[in-house]
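FW: tagging you since you asked about this chain on Friday. Here's the raw sequence from the shared folder, copied in full. Didn't touch anything.
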Amino acid sequence: MFNPFSMVVAIVLIGCLYSLGESYLKTRRQELDQASRGMDDDTRQTIAALEHRVQVLERIVTDSGNDLKREIDRL
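HL: got it, structure written out here
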């Protein structure tokens, strides 16, 4: 059914396909690692901006002038 030449060709072909697949997966893994690092920096910036906004909102809510306004509105 298979002669020795076709067996050698099949083995070489399988080895080449394996090597190509391994290279593709390695490259894909590196791309995902780089993308996740970039996303981490964006996430940190977003968190810092949100923390600042929360601090401003807390200052507004706890401001004594705001309490006076609430008392006047209650009357």
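FW: Residues 4-74 form one domain.
HL: agreed, and The chain is about 95% helix and 0% strand.
FW: great, closing this out.
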